[in-house]
Amino acid sequence: MKNEILKCLKETDGYVSGQELCERLGVSRTAVWKVIRQLEAEGYGIEAVRNRGYRLHDSADILNEAEIRAVLTSHWLGQNVKFLEEIDSTNNEVRRMAEQGAPEGTLVVAEIQTAGKGRRGRRWDSPKGSGIWHSFLLRPEFAPEHASMLTLLAAMAVRKSVSNVTGLECLIKWPNDIVVNGKKICGILTEMSTEEDSIRYVVVGIGINANTPDFPEEIRATATSLALELGHPVHRASIINGVMCAFEEYYDIYRETLDMSRLKEAYNQELVNVERAVKVLAPGGDYTGISHGINDAGELIVELADGSLREVNSGEVSVRGIYGYV
């Protein structure tokens, strides 16, 4: 009932009467009053006026299941949502739920991660109230070789959501980092479980530095948060909703071709690497060149000094002017 009352308050421009809430939900005025008190205890600012009803003020950033459900407008992604105050890793929790038969689109959001995961086994710090730590479950019907590009779709979804919600100009650093003013705000980790030649499930994990007030000295020059760039906190649930809606859009397009052919132009327009000098840190040796964006396979096309082209599909890529590479 709390979810429904919060959603109703958010959707109503002005006051909504207690009687209307009672009739809509089929509950007593006392039950409505108790939920209002509970919402206030959680930090929501609610004005109650006799003979007019209740009105929700613009509230501070609050993240819980009711808030997420109240703002969610996606069709299937996130409709099964689980919020946790603390978890080892949202990716781990989605994997556990997947093994128990959780449906596609299941979303897990945590306030704190005690063992957040970054790329290549690196730790991702996830302190309380500072970020958006969330993962969702996919059960694709296509072959495993087509799953690698899902991380590019996730990057596009995060960039679109952050831009729409905050107005910040943000770009993608190939393949899936999101940068604002040359600093990283987001990390994406996609994990897959396969069986013979098929995919059992894919977990897409996204960590966004939303309201982080400061960073350790060792990463201060390369990392930032949305709040630091804006000068004020952001509403995290709105950004989650934007990611869910945008990923649905891109995922539907991707499944029609199973490559980036229909999304390549949009991706390259959002890519900080395009026509920039890049340094590729490759297992066979580092090299530099000019990036020309991605191809249909999601590989980064790099032109070397002799005019030859290389298609990069693995390894780290450092961009001139980004993350300290000058």
TrEMBL record:
<dbReference type="Pfam" id="PF02237">
    <property type="entry name" value="BPL_C"/>
</dbReference>
<dbReference type="InterPro" id="IPR036388">
    <property type="entry name" value="WH-like_DNA-bd_sf"/>
</dbReference>
<keyword id="KW-0547">Nucleotide-binding</keyword>
<keyword id="KW-0067">ATP-binding</keyword>
<dbReference type="InterPro" id="IPR013196">
    <property type="entry name" value="HTH_11"/>
</dbReference>
<dbReference type="InterPro" id="IPR030855">
    <property type="entry name" value="Bifunct_BirA"/>
</dbReference>
<dbReference type="InterPro" id="IPR008988">
    <property type="entry name" value="Transcriptional_repressor_C"/>
</dbReference>
<comment type="similarity">
    <text>Belongs to the biotin--protein ligase family.</text>
</comment>
<feature type="binding site">
    <location>
        <position position="113"/>
    </location>
    <ligand>
        <name>biotin</name>
    </ligand>
</feature>
<feature type="binding site">
    <location>
        <begin position="89"/>
        <end position="91"/>
    </location>
    <ligand>
        <name>biotin</name>
    </ligand>
</feature>
<keyword id="KW-0804">Transcription</keyword>
<dbReference type="Pfam" id="PF03099">
    <property type="entry name" value="BPL_LplA_LipB"/>
</dbReference>
<keyword id="KW-0805">Transcription regulation</keyword>
<dbReference type="GO" id="GO:0004077">
    <property type="term" value="F:biotin--[biotin carboxyl-carrier protein] ligase activity"/>
</dbReference>
<keyword id="KW-0092">Biotin</keyword>
<dbReference type="InterPro" id="IPR004143">
    <property type="entry name" value="BPL_LPL_catalytic"/>
</dbReference>
<feature type="domain" description="BPL/LPL catalytic">
    <location>
        <begin position="65"/>
        <end position="255"/>
    </location>
</feature>
<keyword id="KW-0436">Ligase</keyword>
<dbReference type="InterPro" id="IPR045864">
    <property type="entry name" value="aa-tRNA-synth_II/BPL/LPL"/>
</dbReference>
<feature type="binding site">
    <location>
        <position position="184"/>
    </location>
    <ligand>
        <name>biotin</name>
    </ligand>
</feature>
<keyword id="KW-0678">Repressor</keyword>
<dbReference type="InterPro" id="IPR004408">
    <property type="entry name" value="Biotin_CoA_COase_ligase"/>
</dbReference>
<feature type="DNA-binding region" description="H-T-H motif">
    <location>
        <begin position="18"/>
        <end position="37"/>
    </location>
</feature>
<comment type="function">
    <text>Acts both as a biotin--[acetyl-CoA-carboxylase] ligase and a repressor.</text>
</comment>
<dbReference type="InterPro" id="IPR003142">
    <property type="entry name" value="BPL_C"/>
</dbReference>
<keyword id="KW-0238">DNA-binding</keyword>
<protein>
    <recommendedName>
        <fullName>Bifunctional ligase/repressor BirA</fullName>
        <ecNumber>6.3.4.15</ecNumber>
    </recommendedName>
</protein>
<dbReference type="InterPro" id="IPR036390">
    <property type="entry name" value="WH_DNA-bd_sf"/>
</dbReference>
<dbReference type="Pfam" id="PF08279">
    <property type="entry name" value="HTH_11"/>
</dbReference>
